[in-house]
């Protein structure tokens, strides 16, 4: 759970999740949306993957990234359980 919260703590990573909410994207397509280096985007994607928020799959020569909605649902359920 700590990796999950750490990954959500960064505004760039939250914006990446917003982009992936719309559709699966390659790292290059994600990087095009930011004014930071591609290695920095790769680092953010790696942290999101380790937290379980993003998954990847190879399509030809590209890696496509997608939002893992299961972990998001688990997080929301955890937050709702805190209210009980």
Automatic annotation (TrEMBL):
Assigned keywords, A-Z: DNA-binding, Transcription, Transcription regulation
PROSITE patterns: HTH_ARSR_2
InterPro entries tied to this protein: ArsR-like_HTH (IPR011991), HTH_ArsR_DNA-bd_dom (IPR001845), HTH_MetalResp_TranReg (IPR051081), SdpR-like_repress (IPR047796), WH-like_DNA-bd_sf (IPR036388), WH_DNA-bd_sf (IPR036390)
One GO MF term: DNA-binding transcription factor activity
UniProt keyword Metal-binding present: no
Annotated HTH arsR-type domain residues: 1-84
Domain of life where this protein originates: Bacteria
Protein name: Transcription regulator, ArsR family protein (Imported)
Source organism per UniProt: Robiginitalea biformata (strain ATCC BAA-864 / DSM 15991 / KCTC 12146 / HTCC2501)
């Amino acid at each position: 759970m700590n990796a999950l919260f750490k990954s959500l703590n960064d505004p760039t990573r939250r914006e990446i999740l917003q982009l992936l909410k719309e559709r699966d994207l390659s790292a290059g397509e994600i990087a095009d949306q930011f004014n930071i280096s591609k290695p920095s985007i790769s680092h953010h994607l790696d942290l999101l993957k380790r937290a379980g928020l993003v998954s990847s799959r190879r399509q030809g020569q590209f890696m496509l990234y997608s939002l893992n909605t299961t972990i998001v649902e688990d997080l929301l359920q955890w937050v709702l359980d805190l209210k009980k």
